[in-house]
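S.,

Sequence below, as promised.
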Amino acid sequence: MAARREMVLNAFTMNCVGHINHGLWTHPRDRSADYTSLDHWTALARTLERGLFDAAFIADVSGVYDVYGGGIGVTAREAVQLPVNEPTLLVPAMAAVTRHLGFGVTVNIAGEHPYTFARRMATLDHLTGGRVGWNIVTGYLDSAARAVGRDGLDGHDTRYDRADDCLDLLYKLWEDSWDDDAVRRDRTARVYADPAKIRAIHHEGPFFRSAGVALSAPSPQRTPVLFQAGSSGRGQLFAARHAECVFISAPDRAAARRAARGLREAAAAAGRDPSGLKVIMGLTVVAGETASAARDRLADYVRHASPEAGLAHFGAGSGIDLAPYGLDEPISTAPSNAIRSTTEAAQRRGATKRQLLAELALGGRYPLAVGTGAEVAAEMEGWMDEGEVDGFNLTRTVEPECWEDFVALVVPALQERGIHKTSYREGTFRRKLFGRGDRLPAGHAGRRSGA
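The prediction came back faster than expected:
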């Protein structure tokens, strides 16, 4: 079969027990509770690189899910992203046992000052040889704001205004403070770095101020690959200016196509090449040697899953406490300060608690592909062709077997269809993803920052 457009393939995970498909930690074969062990993460990295995954996409939250039932009862009992450990500390260990695997790391800008954050990401980019991406999040949990002494979250659009200002400052630090040839390492002349080629940046923005020299010398990519997951109107504008990869959640192919087209049109309107934006959707896969075996495995997983834990997760994302609702009572979707696209989607389809619980049979709400390797590969190809997405964030179910099954059963079928690589491209994460240079492309806001 002739080569086709290759998909972006990420493992969607988190430094915690329960991430998306909740309750599966109770399955006797699940090892997600080993998340505090480095061996757990290095084994995952090796498996993903064997399957030629582009990246481990590591999610994070900086608050707790305390909307459902007005507290953390279900959240704590079912480990709904609690406890959760810091994501960036996993990267050096996982990078040390791999050569090509990239890392999309989630960090909320609300808890960071760009000056020190710029150094942390540059350090990771150095240590990994340019294999780091940053998933930019603006926060959606009031609990996170209260935990650091604030009354609550800023307004939805204000959070994106703050993120714009943060990125403008980060671009100056990553792209402008040091010239490419500032580091000389000249022992004879006793010049490690040429001071004439290093400059302080000056930033006076609506949210951040900074005057100083970037602490890190330029890393292989300078700016990490930029991921973003906002799909509200304001989030889409932010993505059009900054994002290189946008993560979407779509219930069907038509919705995915609308989202993908909207994002690419917004990028073009912002003066960017739409091909410089990858649209990646969330997908859960349950694969088996036969179709019957895959269905049996899914039924086994469902017996251990917790739909109610899924409601606790939904409540945090929507800002709606579903605990007091009757099964068929229409869910109120008045504007909230949480994830706007979540409430808008629920409102469009008139969701009820009964419908949500049915959708959450596996504990999470991403589309599900079940079958043999060939059947799953066909389903993924259909999402790419009809949904016009560029790839997938695969959610975990029972691990590590979900990753091992995918590598053994689905990857060969994807390769037969010509939509998954048979070897890695050399170079940085950005070069691997886009087949171009290591740096942000011309036309991107980060290449126009100015010191």
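The mean pLDDT is 92.

Coffee later?
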